[in-house]
Write a structure and sequence with these properties.
Helices cover 75% and strands 0% of the residues. The protein is built from five helices and no strands.
Length: 181
């Protein structure tokens, strides 16, 4: 199996994992929004659409990774005298694994961000429609924590996706190995 075929397979596996996670999260999002709406007059169709909108970014990304993984895979770097044999393949495989993990974190962060924006929209509609609860804070502590976690997850995902080779070299140095990866 060639290097590019192996990376394409890893990206397809990541795409399937993201797709399963996004589809499995739709009922959870819908149930959470349904129970959270309380006695206010929101249609079930609107809540279904918000739940689907929260999953669409992850579904689109996963389908792209499943259908077109070769558009993301770059050719391996040219051979050098420092990199040879098994260590070279292991380093490339580790860099690819970090990148795939980064794609997963990015997709999860996008899905979570869509969920929190949908929840925040519903929250503002509830606050605006009732004078009794209009004294509530503009952003609940749990939602702020969710937004902060989502932002951190997105940044870590981007760092892993773009910095895979650098992380492999850093791990090699920390393990006391010379620059053979």
């Amino acid at each position: 199996m060639s290097y590019q075929s192996l990376l394409a397979m890893l990206l397809r596996v990541a795409g399937v994992a993201i797709l399963v996670s996004a589809v499995a999260g739709i009922p959870t999002t819908f149930t959470s929004l349904l129970t959270w709406k309380g006695s206010h007059d929101f249609s079930v169709i609107e809540l279904v659409l918000l739940s689907l909108a929260a999953a669409i970014p992850a579904i689109v990304l996963s389908l792209f990774l499943i259908i077109y993984p070769s558009s993301v895979v770059r050719p391996p770097p040219p051979e050098s005298s420092e990199l040879a044999g098994e260590h070279q393949w292991a380093g490339h495989l580790q860099a690819a694994a970090f990148s795939v993990l980064g794609v997963y974190f990015i997709a999860e962060a996008l899905c979570s961000a869509a969920y929190y924006f949908a929840r925040l929209k519903l929250y503002y509609q509830v606050i605006g429609s009732s004078d009794a609860i209009s004294k509530m804070p503009l952003l609940l502590p749990d939602d702020f924590g969710g937004f902060a976690f989502t932002a951190i997850q997105l940044l870590v995902g981007i760092a892993l996706f773009l910095g895979g080779p650098g992380l492999v070299r850093l791990w090699a140095r920390l393990r006391g190995q010379s620059g053979d990866r």
